What does this fold into?
Amino acid sequence: MIHFRNVHKAFGERRILKGIDLDIEAGKTTTILGVSGGGKSTIIKHIVGLLQADSGQIIVDGHDISHGGNEALMNVRRVTGFLFQSGALFDSMNVRDNVIFPLAEHTTMTLKEMHYEAERSLSMVGLDPKEVLSLMPHELSGGMRKRVGLARTLVSKPKIILYDEPTSGLDPISSDHITQMIKNLQAQLRVTSILISHDMKEAFKSSDKMAMLWDGKIIEYGDVRHFQETQNPYVQQFVEGTSEGPIQFVD
It folds into this structure.
């Protein structure tokens, strides 16, 4: 579904991606792990063209977005949903208008049809439409904002969903609820999902595959059992959450 081949990206003198090679399987959940500021979000922003690689090749759903121009990029964006860390809701819009926004911008649906899809999407993320449709973003808890943001992502029925730190800033109970919801949605929809995370508990619960980013490269890739049993000292240190050993993790 998604292929990175020797992808490089720098911001000024700072090299973030130093030759990323990664294959994301269709219909699976892949979690990209790494330290804060290490380039995890940079990877997924390349998938939807929010960033452009300095060199290398990125193929998404058969489209070469590194060399295919705007048409290839628009084809990818039409099938991709992106859940930002904060939910990225529009503060001036209520929940209903936030969720239907992609449909209003990119489809010819009637208002009635859009409202139906909004209610369907909110129900999928465990929210009662009757209770939340008229609420403003400032009236929502952190967990509810994430759910509404995900409902807005789902309303367009994407083939690919990108989750940027979906449990960031949440209390442990809300975090567990979001993780379980992502797992349930994956089982139900069979989309291709990519999670960015430094939360090992979340990663082990949600993932079919995991990839470890360190110093601009993918240094380990495999399923959950592989990561639990790996002898790679860098990955072991991250999994075990210790600051002792061969590397120092700094936020």
